[in-house]
Design goal:
The chain has helices at 4-40, 94-100, 154-157, and strands at 48-50, 56-61, 69-74, 77-83, 90-93, 107-112, 115-129, 132-142, 149-152, 161-165, 168-172. It is α+β, with helices and mostly antiparallel strands. The protein has two domains: 1-40; 48-172, Cathepsin D, subunit A, domain 1 (Beta Barrel). Strands 3, 4, 5, 6, 7, 8 and 9 form a seven-stranded mixed sheet that branches. A four-stranded antiparallel sheet has the order 1-2-11-10, with no helix packed on it. β10 (161-165) and β11 form a beta hairpin. The N and C termini lie far apart (82 Å).
């Protein structure tokens, strides 16, 4: 009796089992990666509501750590903001500024939580959160900031009404 076809069938079966395990593992990594991203930034697709008198309103959910992280746009480029009412300006990490084509202006010395650092003045033609859009927003480029999150500071927020209640931040224009 010839065992060769039976051995070949066993090899194919083992290969299919290994492939199924690898695909299953890859799907789990993908799924849990999405869950983790949503916990960090639960506001990736914010909805703008029109309220009394035609005002626009965006309601942000706090992240797992209590921060307000939201996907928005600078000069029509998709970015991630971290709402920071303690920041005087919108502050863009150097690597993000390079990626979206911002020009460095005059150097400025600023005081941060990590001490005094030199940043560079810039003006953002357009800043959007949902459909709330403002033009000509003063900002700085901070080459010392790590990561891709932009601090959404008061140079943007001062033109809006901001209120916080029960794990939600409401921004109204």
């Amino acid at each position: 009796m010839n065992d060769q076809p039976q051995q070949q069938t066993k090899r194919i079966g083992k290969g299919m089992i290994y492939t199924a395990w690898i695909l299953g593992f890859a799907l789990m990594v993908w799924f849990f990666g999405i869950l983790e991203t949503n916990k960090h930034n639960p506001n990736q697709n914010v909805q703008t509501h029109v309220v009394e008198g035609g005002s626009k309103e965006v309601i942000l959910q706090s992240s797992r750590y209590g921060h307000y992280v939201v996907t928005g746009k600078i000069n029509n480029e998709k970015v991630t903001f971290l709402v920071d009412t303690g920041a005087s300006y919108v502050s863009v990490p150097g690597n993000v500024a390079n990626k979206i084509g911002l020009e460095k202006g005059a150097p400025i010395m600023v005081s941060t939580a990590n001490g005094n650092v030199t940043v560079y003045a810039t003006t953002l033609d357009l800043v959007s959160v949902g459909t709330i859009t403002l033009h000509n927003i003063k900002a700085d480029i901070n080459p010392h900031m790590q990561g891709d999150e932009i601090l959404l500071g008061m140079s943007f927020l001062r033109f809006l009404s901001v209120s916080h209640e029960a794990g939600q931040l409401t921004i109204r224009q």
